[in-house]
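Q: Study each token:
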Amino acid sequence: MRNKIAVIFLVFVILYTAPGFAAEEIKNAKQLFAENPSPEVSLTIDPMIDPALRLVNKKNGLAWDDVPELVFPDINTKPGITAQQCAPMAKEALEALFAAAKAAGWDLAAVSGYRSYTAQKLIYNRKVEERGEASASLSSAPPGKSEHQLGLAMDVSCASIDYRLNKIFADTNEGKWLYAHCAEYGFIIRYKTEWTKITGYKGEPWHIRYVGVEHAKLIEKLDVP
């Protein structure tokens, strides 16, 4: 049952819907999209089933007062910023992920974790003013539509690119390690460049989303070319 839920989450994360898809039939994202080119149905995973799979995207939002329980994970942060918060279920996973990267010789740094509805509104409105709504919407979520409000997303970077949230992170040793190993700790790279036409966002190799180890590994398999 849990595998089927994970499959549903992946399909809706990437496609918003994939009618008739079964967990036993493992297909990659390209195949799924080809079979369902015009998804119309929206779905939000019931957090009572598995809170780690709660779906937030451009079609599934959160109310302004939807605030999770928050904790401070013991992880490295970008110099000069305050410690970043996350939901309790992601705390140990984040700590283990950062520790494993450190053991491998790479220093990850948290740049942005939990964001309130109000904080996201300020960020989004500023980008709209700077770039216009069409451009801003490719790189920033409207208030209530950001996974950061769940406390399950974390933006990470590294010293070699001055802790920027930039696509070049994918080419750093830290970015490559994160891409290869994040699923082992329950995380997925939520917005891949090749998914832009599907998710509506440009690639963000720095944005990881906690879904749990079992689900992350299954999602990783589903996206193998």
Notes: The first strand starts at residue 109 and ends at 112. Helices lie at 2-14, 29-35, 88-103, 117-131, 133-136, 173-181, 196-199, 213-222.
